[in-house]
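Encode chain A's predicted structure.
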Amino acid sequence: MRIEQVDPPRVGHPCGHPADLKGGDAAANAQVVRDLVTGKPGPVRDAVLLNAAGAVAAHRGLSGDLHADLRDGLVAVTDAVDSGAARGCWSVGSAWQRSCGPPNTQSSTESNRPL
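Encoded structure for chain A:
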């Protein structure tokens, strides 16, 4: 195991500030997601894309050059957002969530019963 620190500028990505990622109420947060999946630039998009690039890099297997792996992952995740594929996934997920009704309020014992 090796510990490395990600340097966003080394992968062509800006550094953000934690305050730029502060959420809001449900409506505000939903708008942030809509903005993200429609390609609106900003610190949320930057943070999400870099995080997703890390997941892609880990899934593909790391080469030993973390920043190169992240750059490759950024290409894939940026394409997914910019092509509209992410918007399609979010739309399907939103429709599914609306169709499921209110959250399950059963006790954990009841919800663990086999179907």
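The two ends are 41 Å apart (CA to CA).
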